[in-house]
Design goal:
The chain is of the alpha/beta class. The protein has one domain (14-277): Rossmann fold (3-Layer(aba) Sandwich), CATH 3.40.50. It has helices at 14-31, 33-44, 65-73, 86-93, 135-145, 163-170, 184-193, 213-222, 239-250, and strands at residues 55-59, 78-83, 103-107, 120-126, 146-157, 197-210, 258-270, 285-286. An eight-stranded mixed sheet has the order 3-2-1-4-5-7-6-8, sandwiched between helices. α1 (14-31) crosses α8 (213-222) and α5 (135-145) crosses α7. The radius of gyration is 19 Å and the shape is globular. Mean pLDDT is 84; it is low at 1-10 and 292-298.
Length: 298
């Protein structure tokens, strides 16, 4: 079981990404417990902002959990769900077959959005950017489609994600089996380079527990998170090697369960006002999740 190469590495094969998530569409919602928890946290962060968006773009909407939560929060908004995987869009659309629905569904790429300039008030993206080899290109596209002073709100994964699985594979061979995700400071710098303003980054670590290491790998496969690298090893993982990985992972068992750690990175930034001065990296604010609280606005 493997997952893709580093977030900014440029080796990720998007055709295989789409194929993986198309195959996983039927099983995604059942296994995406972490993803649903994160999207809930991300939607709750809207309490921090005094905005009433007319048009919302959900980038990487998957099976539609974020769409449904955004609809409950903003019942009058026009919401566009965008995903690279057509089958995911079909699953998401299945719950919205109403003549008066204000949702649209678009099969597209975050790095080349099929939307007009300055057409969106809120870009929302949960647990998607780790699948974008051109992170800065995606941020530039978000800035392009955002109206002046529009909001970008997103979550992605940080470098401590799946550290137990990474350690277990490293004890067996030197191949890349687990994604080396970007640090939140690098993500914040990419926001600034893309021309987005007042970026704020923070993170939290969430630990999922499983009965055994194979259950971790099955969950990853069921949500489409397996090796879609253009440079992935050509050979199959042998039973002996996989057994050794499992043996190493078992050494991390605590209180009868196997841990799988995820470093979840959250961020938001704003489309600049017309004529505003570009920022440099020194303006990125980062802080632990425990310091985030209360209501506020820009």
């Amino acid at each position: 079981m493997t997952i893709p190469e580093p977030l900014g590495g440029g080796r990720l094969d998007k055709r295989r990404v789409a194929e993986a998530f198309n195959r996983a569409a039927a099983t995604y919602a059942e296994h995406a417990v972490l993803q649903e928890a994160v999207v809930q946290r991300l939607v709750e962060r809207m309490d921090l902002f005094r905005i009433d968006p007319d048009v919302i773009l959900d980038v990487g909407c998957g099976s539609g959990n974020g769409l449904r939560r955004l609809r409950r929060r903003y019942p009058r908004a026009r919401i566009v769900g965008l995903d690279l995987a057509l089958e995911m869009l079909r699953v998401a659309r299945g719950g919205w077959r109403r003549l008066w629905a204000r949702e649209s569904y678009v099969c597209g790429d975050a790095e080349s959005l099929p939307l007009a300039d300055a057409s969106v008030d809120l870009v929302f993206s949960s647990m998607v950017l780790q699948w974008c080899p051109g992170l800065e290109a995606a941020f530039r596209e978000f800035r392009r489609v955002l109206r002046p002073e529009g909001l970008l709100l997103f979550s992605t994964l940080g470098p401590d994600t799946l550290t137990e699985l990474r350690q277990s594979w490293a004890a067996v061979d030197r191949d890349t089996h687990v994604n080396a995700f970007l640090d939140m400071h690098d993500v914040g710098d990419a926001l600034v380079r893309a021309g987005l303003g007042s970026p704020v980054m923070d993170m939290e670590r969430l630990t999922m527990t499983y009965p055994d290491p194979c259950a971790v790998m099955r969950d990853l496969k069921a949500i489409g998170a397996h090796n879609v690298n253009s440079g992935r090893p050509a050979h199959l993982t042998g039973k002996t090697r996989l057994r050794r990985v499992i043996e190493h992972y078992e050494r991390l068992r605590r209180d009868g369960v196997i841990p799988a750690t995820y470093e979840v990175v959250y961020g938001h930034a704003w489309a600049p006002r017309p004529g505003s001065r570009p920022q440099d990296g020194s303006t990125v604010a980062t802080f632990p999740l425990s310091r985030l609280g209360g209501r506020g606005g820009r």
